[in-house]
Amino acid sequence: MLSKKTKYGIKALTFLARQEDQTPVAIADIAKSENISIKFLESILLLLRHSGFLGAKKGKGGGYYLIKEPKEINMATVYRILEGPIALLPCASHNFYEKCDDCTDEVNCAVRKLMAEVRDNTLKILENNSLADIAF
């Protein structure tokens, strides 16, 4: 299941992508528009800022803004930053692989095969969508 952190992060990015002039938007404005707690949103936006998607301006007229074009922001990357692995099991992950403690035959494991297929299809959808694709 998608975490609220990831859901809200995508909503905030979409909100910022839809701003016509890309001027900074106050956290309170994003939070109100997207019905997100300001405190929770602050931590999400800070993470996205440190990941290179957002810039921030302090003071009057300050807020957050995209520093990349929406078409350059790949949703697979956003997902990994906010949610972590795309795979539902560690043994089916490309980037976060871990062997399962209870598995005796990973190569023939039916659960792993199914979860690898789920991972591959999810990854394909996320990689083929940018912020521009979902925001407009």
Could you explain the architecture of this structure?
- It contains 6 helices and 2 strands; from the N terminus they run H-H-H-E-E-H-H-H.
- The chain is mostly helical.
- A hairpin with a 5-residue loop joins strand 1 and strand 2.
- Helix 1 packs across helix 3 and helix 4 crosses helix 5.
- The mean pLDDT is 95.
What is the helix content? Answer: 40-55%
**Helix segment tally:** 6
> If you average the pLDDT, what whole number results?
95
Strand order of the largest sheet: 1-2
Strand content: 5-15%
Low-confidence stretches: none
Number of strands: 2
Q: How do the helices and strands follow one another from N- to C-terminus?
A: HHHEEHHH
Taking all Cα atoms into account, the compactness measure Rg is 17 Å
Distance between the termini: 25 Å
**Gross morphology:** elongated
Characterize the biggest β-sheet.
2 strands, antiparallel
| Structural class by SSE content | mainly alpha
Oligomeric grouping of the chains: single chain
Indicate the topology:
Blueprint: H1 4-17, H2 27-34, H3 38-50, E1 54-57, E2 63-66, H4 75-82, H5 110-127, H6 131-135
Antiparallel strand pairs: 1-2
Helix pairs in contact: 1-2, 1-3, 4-5
